[in-house]
Specification:
single chain, 278 residues, 2 domains, 2 strands, binds iron/sulfur cluster
């Protein structure tokens, strides 16, 4: 039951009761289920054909959009398809190829370093263990979890800027530190949900629950969100804030997975294929 507190005018104001652990877990799982329906086509938004490509693309995705990475990697992977070939690359040539993704000198150094390490320490194969992946240059827990979850099928939570912001807005954590967020959110869900939960939350953050202007009035999980009202609540104005396929625009992948293309076909008047598809 909500407590009553005195206001300046002497009236009483209802103060929400702190949420119990059981209620928090229930609400979090319900949000996950609702997001699973809304984003039934959620997927990693980087194009990749194997673990090495996903690792490289994820390193390149720092401080830029997945679309920019997807536009950059085809030439890079055509030139250096394996860790062995990338390890012997001319650093300046790599820099030029990845220049559009920004921070290209540091990223080129990471790509050369991680390719060399994979060649010399892991027999030319991307390792499938978190403790090995984080020893590669330029690879932290976030990148390691992306690779584990999407190339190896090992559940992982990817705490990027969207995931952290949404986890706090949804009241799942108050932490800022990615590792604490990973642990606190992970404890609310079965492990088997971790990878898809990450995709769904990141999809929602990119499309609806934006950093500066969340589209609360067009948000499918608004009734379950303690931060409702932080953004635009007018349904019409909020609908204009939606992005990517929800706003009638393109997705980020040049090679989107089939469920995404199938979903687009169900949208009224949205027969336009996404970036580079088809
Ligand atoms: S209601 Fe608003 S703050 Fe909450 S998840 Fe939706 S868009 Fe984000």
């Amino acid at each position: 039951m909500a407590k009553a507190g005195a206001t300046a005018k002497g009236k009483t104001k209802r103060v929400p009761k702190p949420e119990s652990r059981v209620a928090l877990v229930r609400r979090a799982r319900r949000i996950n289920r609702e997001l699973a329906e809304v984003y039934s086509y959620a997927h990693p938004e980087l194009d990749f054909d194997n673990a090495f490509q996903l690792l490289v693309a994820t390193v390149l995705s720092a401080q830029t959009t997945d679309l920019r990475v997807n536009q950059t990697t085809p030439m890079l992977f055509a030139r250096y398809p394996t860790p062995e070939e990338m390890a012997t690359a001319d650093p300046e040539e790599i820099e030029q190829l990845i220049r559009p993704t920004g921070f290209f000198r540091a990223k080129a150094k990471s790509l050369l370093g991680l390719s060399t390490a994979i060649r010399d320490r892991f027999g030319g194969e991307v390792p499938g263990r978190l403790e090995d992946l984080v020893t590669l240059p330029g690879v932290g827990r976030k990148t390691a979890n992306v690779v584990l979850g999407n190339a190896f099928g090992i559940p992982g939570i990817t705490v990027d800027t969207h995931f952290g912001r949404l986890a706090r807005r949804l009241g799942w954590t108050t932490a800022q530190d990615p590792e604490t967020i990973e642990q606190e959110v992970g404890s609310l869900f079965p492990k088997s949900e971790w990878t898809m939960l990450s995709h769904r939350l990141i999809f929602h953050g990119r499309r609806v629950c934006h950093s500066r202007k969340p589209a609360c009035g067009a948000c499918p999980i608004a009734p379950l969100c303690p931060s409702y009202g932080e953004g635009e609540t007018d349904p019409e104005k909020a609908a204009k804030l939606l992005k990517y396929e929800m706003g009638g625009g393109d997705g980020q992948r040049l090679k989107p997975p089939a469920p995404y293309l199938d979903y687009l076909k169900t949208l009224p008047g949205a027969s336009k294929p996404p970036q580079g598809a088809g």
